[in-house]
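Hi Y.,

Following your request, here is the sequence exactly as I used it, all 290 residues.
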Amino acid sequence: MIGAETWTISGGRVLGPAPFLLAGIVNVTPDSFYDGGRHNAPAEAVAQALRLADEGAHILDIGGESTRPGAPEVGEAEELARVVPVLRELAAMPARTVDGLSGAFPILAVDTYKAKVAAASLDAGAAIINDVSACLFEPELLDVVAQYKPGYVLMHSLGKPGTMQQDPRYGNVVDEILAFFEERLAALTAAGVPEANIVLDPGIGFGKLLEHNLSILRGVERFGKLGRPVYMGLSNKAVWGMLLGLGPQERQHATAVATALLTARGVLVHRVHEVALARQAALVAQAITA
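Below is the corresponding structure, written out as tokens. Let me know if you'd prefer a different format.
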């Protein structure tokens, strides 16, 4: 099994131990690969977030900039205008209890690598920063995370979204991601980020070809050597298109199967578009492996 079973977020709140946690994706963007433009306005994004909460999301992951391969960068002001109103409205909603777990849900996360967007989002009610950059695109983000001490998703990516899929190469992809995590964990903790606040995302599709993604999934238990939970984002991604010849709107069942398998193997957090389907898959895995 994998690493720790708990994750500390803003205010010292501890998530877990739990068989699984589901992070529902809310893209406030016109160009995300799966649902770009569907929830582009704040009111539509809030409505989608509430639907995912009704389906059992423990976390709502709000993103104002697409990180699909080849995506253009979004300016700081535009990203703030997209995500902060959504976070503020959701933060004012009544809290819920999910799966009998203690504490109020859903928890708000923001998907950003920008320091000012992260700080403003945390001030607006977010408790988790989901960062595709490992604090390398904007080093100032490290100061924000060290100051606020939110939950932090440390993700591996081979470069920025605009260029990451241009001929990615590895000797041994799992070994190299492990070395990357070790180096960035050391940098984060040295800056004052508690290790208990960090989870590890191997970055499926972020500078990886099909064989790299499959090697990561086959070897997912190896990330447990670092003692932190794994956060997995593989919902409807191109890995299923390459493996099965499916378009973006046809990958839900492949995602659910992978979610079940990874739940059974100890992955704690699953970032998904279809929360209800993922929850069914995870509950089946939990029942069979209990």
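The mean pLDDT is 93.

Thanks again,
Q.
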